[in-house]
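// run 5 | inverse folding | seed 20
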């Protein structure tokens, strides 16, 4: 967990596993860690530096999360040779000081958005308690 940016990235452990599996299966040479770093850099630019680098086609506010600020994001995975529609969709929670990725899935795996939102809701509930006790270093 790095807390040396304007926000701290604390991801649900299952999201880490999902990204690792996806990157390993669908890329040549990229790692999940590199992918995390790229995504984190983009989000810091987007939200904290106000350098808009992600278009509304690729990011938006998710509905149905009871007052929590949850976004969906179509991830860009380098060296994957996947089309834009095959890239995974991820959900992340954003608070003043944290960005927390919750889950991801891809059309390659025939995901259903309603099911992915349910997974995101469940994991958000789990992470809220973790974030209450997480202090920035």
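// decoded
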């Amino acid at each position: 967990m790095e807390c040396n940016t304007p926000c701290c990235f604390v991801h649900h452990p299952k999201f880490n596993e999902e990204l690792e599996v996806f990157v390993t299966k669908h890329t040549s040479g990229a790692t999940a860690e590199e992918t995390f770093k790229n995504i984190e850099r983009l989000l810091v630019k987007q939200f904290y530096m106000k350098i808009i680098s992600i278009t509304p086609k690729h990011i938006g506010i998710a509905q149905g999360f009871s007052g929590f600020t949850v976004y969906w994001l179509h991830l860009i995975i380098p060296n994957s040779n996947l089309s834009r529609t095959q890239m995974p969709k991820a959900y992340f929670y954003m608070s003043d000081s944290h960005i927390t990725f919750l889950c991801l899935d891809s059309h390659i795996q025939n995901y259903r958005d309603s099911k992915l939102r349910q997974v995101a809701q469940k994991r958000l509930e789990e992470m809220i308690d973790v974030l209450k006790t997480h202090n920035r270093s």
